[in-house]
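Purpose: get a first structural picture of the assembly so the mutagenesis plan has something to point at.
Setup: two entries, given in the order below. No constraints added.
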Amino acid sequence: MKIKELFSEILDFFKDFVKVKTGLIGVGIILLFLILLILEPYILVYKDTNTQWRNITYWQDNPANAAPVWTQLFSKDKKPITKFIFDSETEEEDMNGVTVKSYIFDYKFNYSEAPQNIIFHGDANGFLGLQIFVERPDGEKFEIYRIAQNFSNENIRMTANTEARKIAYDFGKTVEDEQTLLNIDPNDLKALDVIFGEKKTGILVKPIPLKGHYKIIAKVLFLDSAATFENPYIVITGKVSGLLGTDNLKRDLFSGVIAGIKWALLIGVLTAVISVFIGLFWGVTSAYYGGFIDAAMNRIYEFFINMPMLPILIAISAVFKINIWILILLLCLFSWTGSVRTVRAIALQLKEEVFVEASKALGANHWRLIFRHIMPLILPLTFANMAFSVPGAILTEAGLSLLGLGDPSIVTWGGILHDAQTGGAFINNLWWWIIPPGLIMALLASSFVFVGWAMDKILHPKLRTR
Amino acid sequence: MINSQNKEVLLKVVNLKKWFPMQHGLASLFAKEIKYVKAVDGINFEVYKGETFGIIGESGCGKTTTGKLIMRLLEPTDGKILLNNEDVAHIKGKELKNYRKNVQMIFQDPYASMNPRFRIRKVLEEPLVIHGVGNSRKYRDEVSKQLLESVKVTPAEDFMERFPHMLSGGQRQRVSIGRGITLSPSLIVADEPVSMIDLSTRAEILAMMNNLKREFGLTYIYITHDLSTARYFADRIAVMYLGRIIEIGSADDIVDNPIHPYTRVLINAVCEPLPGKVKVMKDIQIKGEIPSAARIPKGCRFHTRCLFATEDCINNPEPELIDAGNGHYHACSRASYLPAFKY
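Result (C-alpha cells, whole complex):
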C-alpha cells in the first residue's frame, strides 16, 4: 500500500512536471549524464583513466596538444591520426656471427602534415642492439634511433630523439641555401617534419609533406645468445586524437571529461542533499522551539551565512591536504544555510496549525511533531532548494580545483581546467582543452537549475492551496 | 437535571489565570512594567462526572484559552486544575502524557485538525502509536475500524485509506471525535465542535456525541458561542466575559432565568427565524464594544457596556460569584435592582 501511495504521488508530481518545459529539458540533460555515468566503463577510451590520470607513462603513446579528430571534417588538409601498427615483415640475417632481426612496418602516409612521433615498442631481454630507420617513398633512409643496452625483461619504448633531429638537419642542409641556414637553430627543428618532407628548398623552414609509402624498419641485434626480443609494434602518433583531443601531458581529454562526470554529480548531489537536510532540520527545530533556542540557532545561522566561503575554503585547502570527502563536508558546512530562512518561515506557520496542536493534545512529543508532522510537509518544498544548490557545489569545487586546491587524486573538470591554465592552453590556442570541460560544467549546472525552476513552479503553489 | 449535591466532581478549576506577557525576551528587561493580556483572569468552576458543562461567551472572552488550559496545551499563570483531586496545572513529561490519556480535545476546525498528509488510518492510529497501545498493526486497524463504526463513518474499510480532504466536514469532525475517544478518556474538551459544520448535520453530530457519552461514560466540556446548541447539549452552562465567569448554572436556569445583564443580552441576541419577525430589529440592551483584555476596566469589568451600571459598579471591587440558589451563581452586584427579564 505504501509503495502504491508513493507511486501515485510521484505520478501526480510527474504529471505536473511534464507541463513545465524547462524542467523536462533539465531532467533530459541529467538523464543523459546519468546514462554517461552508467556507461562510463564502456565509453572510456582509456579504461584506466581514473587511476592513471596523473601517470605520465600511461599516456606516453598519445600525441601532445592534439586537436580532436572531428576537426578534420571541416578542413581540407587532413592531419595524421595516431596509428598503431602491429603487423610487420620479419627478416633475419647473420652479421659476423650476430643474429640481426629486421622488423619492417608499412606506413601509408597520406596527410598534409607530418606525424608527431614514431614510437617503437617491444619486450626486450638480454644484451640487445637496436636501430630504427625510416625509409621514404623516394628511397631516402634515416636512422632515427640507436641503442645498445643490457635489458632485463622489460617493455621498451623508443622514439626519435636529438640524434634524429641532427640527422634531419644534416639532410635538410643539402637543399637549403646558406642564408636560410643561418636563421635556423637546429635545436628547434622538428625532426619528423623534415623526415616526412619533400626534399627541396624550404624543407627546414616550411616542409611540404611527402606522401606515399613509408617503411619503418627496426633492426634488433642479438648481441647475447640468450637475448630475446618479442611483440614489436610501432605507434605513429598523429596531430589529432580522440573526440576531444589531448593536453600537453598527452592525456585524452574525452576520457578525462567523462571520468569527471561522477565526481561532479557526487559533489553536487551529495552536498545539496546533505546541506538541505541540515537546513531543513535547523529551520524546523529553530522555528518549533522558539525563544532562546530560536535566537541562538539564528545567531549561529547568521554567523555561517556571513562567512565568505571561497576565501576560507582556499585557506583551508592551502593549509591542509584535502580530499573529496572533506571537500564535500566543507561545502556542506557553508551551504546548509541556503534553505534555513524559507524552512523556518514555513515551519513557524505550520507549528501553529491545529493538527500540530491536536497531535500535541494526543500526547505527541517534540520529535514526533517535528519529524512526523512538520518536516514531511516542508520536505517537498525543499526539493527545489536542493536542485538549486547542486550547481553551486559543482562550481565551487571547480573553482577550488581551478586554483589547484582540489583533490589531486581524482579527475575533475576543475582540475582539467587548472591544468589547461598552467599548461598554457590559452596562449597556444588549445581550445579543446578549455571549452569542453567548461561547457559540460555549465550544462550540468544549468540542468539542475532548470529542474529547480520547474519544481519551484509546481511545488510552491501547493503550499498556498494545501 | 443534575443535582450537584450527589455528583462526583471530576474536574475542579480554582482561580485559574492565564496572562500572556506583551513584551518578550530583551524587551521585557527594559520595559517599566510588563503588560499582560489577561485572557483568563481567575475563574472557578466544577465539572461533575457524566455531565456536559457548557462554556459560552463571545469571541475573545477566554473560553478557548480555558479549554486549552484544561487540556494543558497552555500552562496556567496561576491557579489550580484538579482532575480527580490531583493538581495538573504544572505537571510535565510522563505525568502530562498520562494526563492526556485522560483528557482529550475536539477542535473547532475539522479541516485543519488533521495532518493533510495523513490517511484516516494514520489519524486514528496516532494516539495508539503515541501511547504505545497495541503493538501490532492488525490490532490498531481493528481499533480504528471500531472507532469509525462508533462515530458512524461507515463503511469503515472505505474510509481508512482516504485522506482528510476526501471527506466532508461532518465526516471529518466525526473522525476527529473518534480520534478523541481512542484512548477512552474521562473528559473531553470540545472546542466549538459543530460551529464549522453545516447546520443540517450539527444536530446529528451532537446527538452522536451524546450517544458516545452514554456508551463510553464521558464527560464533556462544551465550549461554544452558540446558546441554542449549548442549551440543547449542555447540562450546566458557565457564561464568560473578558476572562471571567459572570454567571453559572443549569442550562435551563441560564436560558430561562438569566440574571446578569450580559447573559440577558446573549440570550436576546439569539436569532429567531419566526415568520413575521424576520425584519424586526431587536432591542439589544448593551452598548459599546468588548474592551481589550490588556486593559480590563476597573471595578465590574462589564460596567463599560452595561446599561444598568452605577458609580458603585465602577468604584467597588469586582464582585465575586453570588449564589442565587439551585446551583445558580452570578456576578452582578446590582442583580436585585435589575428589571425582570423578558425575551
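The first strand of chain A starts at residue 83 and ends at 85.
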